[in-house]
Design brief:
The complex is a heterodimer of chains A (695) and B (215). Chain A is an all-alpha fold and 695 residues long. Chain A has helices at 6-11, 20-26, 30-55, 59-67, 72-103, 113-148, 156-178, 203-231, 244-276, 289-323, 330-343, 359-387, 396-418, 421-427, 431-461, 467-493, 509-538, 580-586, 608-625, 628-647, 657-673, and strands at residues 600-603, 652-655. The chains are: A mainly alpha (695), B mainly alpha (215). Residues 301, 304, 347, 350-351 of chain A line the site of copper (II) ion (CU).
């Protein structure tokens, strides 16, 4: 593609036309202007952020305290920051998709077909790989070590590498707005459409490399989480004493370990086809795109459980805490979780019932799919029975949990419809499918992650989030979902195809308008979420819960200060039962000084993770534009960094016992002077983070 | 933590002087690597499966009987198996605490064998390519080159790793981390051996069984 010129060497296939601004200048129509606008938002956003950080002189602070930190808590928070940024972008794109379809009834609408295809491709890819995955990885990262009584993850440095690979992948997604264009092949990137002869531009390459970075990052995260839970539980924290969130985390980790490789193979082989001229999935010389489809869904189906299980964990914690009851049917929840994990590998074919297998094979996979409804149903009943006769408080996380239970069951019903091959033939590739998977993913993943965010926020930052805005946001997420997606069931059943750029049936108009309105309500929900954050930070002094247990909750994570010290626990706790902290409070053993404080060894901050992740992204950028020197240079930087790091020995630092003791005693004094707050008043300013536990 | 007894579970580790804390860390470091290998094994399993589905997809191009040379594949097998033996000797040196030179010697020998393997493999590949049997000729050849090539990349990476470990033994001596890395490296190296045995059976031996036959 490149000539032998010097610019060809330096810039690969990059040219002026890659910039949306230039394209909009040459061809000023609304579609290009939206593209240029999006590009400008990225550029301006980056410039403003950099300027702001410089103006606040915060670079050093950010670099030493955050970017290079190997503390699992900070890494967790950074993951979630990425997720929230990417959620905003993908949600705006969703609003654009809905607007286009509502505007394009018997007309072209305002977004060009290619641009429209990029919108749903980026929306889907981002929501899965750069919203749901970082969000849940971040949450697991933050919460699990605290819940099992560990000081950090098993591999803090690998943890940082995973974070920065995800950040690098997100960077590539953002770069595709400014330089060139994204794939038009959907989030699943099916070949042969995404092969060179149909999609010659940089689009699929952006998709391939962004996804590859994310999936490698997730594999490392999975290894890390599994190893942490297997090897770093506190003494006495047997498997069946772990909080349920840990169980879902370990199950998700196992799924990541086994399900990310198929994705890596799929994207790598697609890349081989595009870069090396192999014929894995091409439509000539023996290539077979069904191999891709199988690989992709071998990952894709477990993936939906990867993103859904941690939220199930959150619901288990939230429902139990805000009902003040032990989790009902703990063991059945554990078994159900693991059963779902195993079954999730046996159903991938239901994503392509229509692609040529025999009816018998379809029947087997259809039945296997329906079987998953059983363990899921068990869970729903367990949560309901947990609430039964409990002292239920309708905090925002609890409201989201309740909305989840109702909505998810409805989505499950449509899932059973889709799992029936003859019915699937009728509605496959229509908006019915889109309605179904959003009906699972929004309550099943997003609500849970948001509930977890609101539930653990006071733990992480030491003050509560504003509940009123939390309710408004939750209310908008709930009504917005119903308005935006239930019409799609109707549209899909009436035959409207998904990924449609123009609509030719005027009868669809009212439904499309309702769905558009719903998308706006969802957007309001997102805005409210940020307003809530802003208002809560502004009013933080009135809502401090420094003692650390604002909800009279149960797990070990609530037994330390809020925010917890870097070392989490002054001494590694000894666990006697499930809900360890709850019983410690009841037995009047909580908030006791330690007999003997000891030095604590923690990992030192390291720049290696940042360098590896961002260099890998630069390498990916070079691959997209075929700038080979960039690929070689940053590839070498990655390898060199890993090697150099392996020679370093001075990688830990010791917190002296005196410092640990001073912190602990200060916190104990705070706990001593705080006024316990009753459950009825936990959403008031009287909540200092010390729960009244006589009741 | 109580689940981990004080005994040493990994051959070649003698960290008696180290506190319990770091021994616990060792457990988890090696265990984590096992998990990684499982994940890597999935990648190979999928590549094998793909190769299987593409056996017949020759598109009129050359097939196994035309291109595979069982002789050189057999020699490669012997070389790689021997390198596993020499790595075994490295592990014994690590455990029995012989002189560092001896450990380095066995490591270097392993490296040489690894490089010899790679040299032969590259030679085979180049010969194939010179016949026009390239990865872009047919799906079958794509599957072949990628399956065998990914194994070769792993061996390349393993060789680089050996080099790094030789340097570490020389500069850092045998501290706990060097030992852990040697143990991980040995797992990696033996793993590659196992994969190669599968490649030898599935790719090369099977290529003999179906002389020029269709799918
Ligand atoms: C929060 C509000 C959301 C809205 C308004 C929304 C809206 C949409 C729309 C309009 C489409 C395109 C439908 C079509 O093909 O015609 C779509 C596709 C998709 N969405 Fe969402 N979505 C939302 C959240 C999510 C979430 C949370 C996830 C995943 C965690 C997600 C994952 C996807 C995926 C995977 C696709 C398919 C993309 C493709 O066709 O390749 N969405 N969404
Ligand atoms: Cu599925």
């Amino acid at each position: 593609m490149t000539g032998p010129t010097i610019t060809g060497f330096l810039l690969g296939s990059l040219s002026w036309g890659a910039l949306p601004f230039v394209r909009a200048w040459r061809e000023p129509n609304i579609s290009e202007i939206i593209g240029a606008g999006a590009g400008s938002i990225v550029v301006i956003g980056a410039v403003v952020t950099i300027a702001l950080i410089t103006w606040l002189q915060a670079w050093e602070y950010l670099w030493t305290q955050w970017f290079t930190s190997l503390d699992h808590k900070k890494i967790g928070i950074m993951y979630i920051v990425i997720a929230l940024v990417m959620l905003s972008r993908a949600l705006i794109e969703a609003v654009l998709i809905r607007s286009q379809q509502a505007a394009a009834i018997n007309g072209p609408g305002f977004v060009e077909p290619g641009h429209f295809a990029q919108l749903f491709s980026t929306h889907g890819s981002i929501m899965i790989f750069f919203m749901a995955m970082p969000f849940l990885t971040g949450m697991v990262n933050y919460v699990v070590p605290l819940q099992i009584g560990a000081r950090d993850m098993a591999f803090p440095y690998l943890n940082s590498v995973g974070l920065w690979l995800t950040a690098g992948g997100s960077g590539l997604m953002m770069a595709s707005l400014v330089v060139g264009e994204f794939s038009t092949g959907g989030w699943s990137g099916y070949p042969p459409y995404t092969e060179l002869n149909f999609s010659g531009g940089p689009g699929p390459d952006y998709w391939i490399w962004a996804i590859t970075l994310a999936s490698i990052g997730s594999t490392t995260a999975g290894i890390n989480i599994a190893c942490t839970i297997y090897k770093f539980r506190a003494p006495g924290m047997t498997f069946l004493r772990m909080p349920l969130f840990c169980w879902t985390a370990v199950c998700t980790a196992i799924l990541m370990i086994f399900a990310m490789p198929p994705l890596t193979v799929a994207t790598a082989l697609l890349a081989a086809d595009r870069y090396l001229g192999t014929h894995f999935f091409t439509d000539d010389l023996g290539g077979n795109m069904m191999n891709y489809v199988n690989l992709f869904w071998l990952f894709g189906h477990p993936e939906v459980y990867i993103v859904v299980l941690p939220s199930f964990g959150v619901y288990s914690e939230v429902v139990s805490a805000f009902s003040s009851k032990e989790l009902y049917g703990y063991k059945s929840l554990v078994i159900a979780t693991m059963a779902i994990g195993v079954l999730s590998f046996t159903v991938w074919l239901h994503h392509f019932f229509t692609m040529g297998q025999s009816a018998d094979i379809n029947a087997v996979f259809g039945i296997a799919t329906m079987a998953i409804a059983i363990p899921t149903g068990v869970k729903i009943y367990d949560w309901i029975f947990t609430m039964f006769r409990g002292e239920v408080r309708f905090t925002p996380p609890m409201v989201l949990s309740l909305a989840f239970m109702v909505t998810f069951v409805l989505g499950g019903f449509t899932g059973v419809i889709l799992a029936t091959p003859p019915l699937n033939y009728m509605v496959h590739n229509t908006l019915f499918v889109v309605a179904h998977f959003h009906n699972m993913l929004i309550p099943g993943t997003l609500y849970g992650l948001l509930a977890g965010y609101m539930y653990w926020f006071p733990k992480a930052f030491g003050f509560r989030l504003n509940e009123r805005l939390g309710w408004i946001s939750a209310g908008c997420w709930i009504t917005g979902f119903y308005l935006a997606f239930f019409p799609l069931y109707v549209l899909g059943a009436s035959g409207m195809a998904r990924r449609t750029h123009e609509v030719f049936d005027p009868a669809f108009r009212p439904w499309l308008y309702v769905a558009l309105f719903g998308a706006f309500v969802l957007f309001t929900a997102l805005v409210t979420l940020f307003v809530q954050l802003f208002v809560s930070i502004r009013d933080r002094h009135a809502n401090m819960v420094a003692v650390g247990d604002p909800w009279d909750a149960r797990g070990l994570e609530w037994s330390v200060a809020a925010p917890p010290p870097e070392w989490n626990f002054a001494v590694i706790p000894q666990v006697e039962s499930r809900d360890a902290f709850y019983w410690r409070k009841r037995n009047r053993e909580a908030y006791k000084p330690v007999d003997h404080y000891q030095d604590i060894e923690l990992p030192k901050p390291s720049a290696c993770g940042v360098i590896v992740g961002l260099s890998a992204a630069a390498c990916g950028f070079g691959l997209v534009w075929r700038i080979w020197w960039l690929v070689a240079l940053f590839g070498a930087v990655v390898v060199a960094t890993v090697i150099i790091r392996s020679f370093l020995r001075d990688v830990t630092r010791t917190i002296p016992a005196a410092e640990v003791e001073a912190f602990d005693r200060r916190w104990l004094a705070q706990a001593h002077y705080a006024k316990p707050v009753s459950r009825q008043r936990e959403m008031s300013r009287r909540n200092e983070g010390l729960a009244e536990w006589t009741a | 933590m109580d689940s981990v007894g004080p005994q040493l579970r990994h051959a070649g580790l003698n960290l008696e002087d180290d506190p319990r804390e770091s021994r616990h860390q060792v457990e988890s470091d090696v265990f984590g690597f096992w998990i990684f290998l499982m994940s890597d094994a999935v990648i190979f399993a999928l590549l094998f499966a793909l190769y299987g589905t593409m056996l017949g997809a020759r598109a009129g191009g050359p097939g196994p009987a035309d291109e595979f040379k069982i002789g050189s594949a057999f020699v490669e097998t012997l070389i790689l198996l021997t390198s596993s033996f020499t790595f075994g000797m490295t592990s014994l040196c690590l455990k029995r605490d012989h002189k560092p030179q001896r450990l380095t010697l066995w490591l270097a020998l392993t490296l040489l064998l690894g490089l010899a393997f790679l040299g032969m493999e590259i030679h085979d590949f180049v010969t194939m390519v010179s016949h026009g049997a390239t990865a872009s000729r047919s799906a079958f050849l794509s599957g072949f080159f990628v399956l065998v090539g990914v194994h070769g990349l792993h061996v390349t990476f393993g060789s680089l790793w050996i080099l790094v470990m030789v340097a570490q033994v020389a500069t850092l001596g045998r501290d706990a981390k060097v030992k852990i890395n040697l143990i991980r490296l040995s797992l990696f190296w033996h793993f590659l051996d196992v994969i190669w045995v599968a490649i030898f059976s599935v790719v090369y031996l099977q290529g003999l069984i179906v002389p020029g036959g269709g799918s």
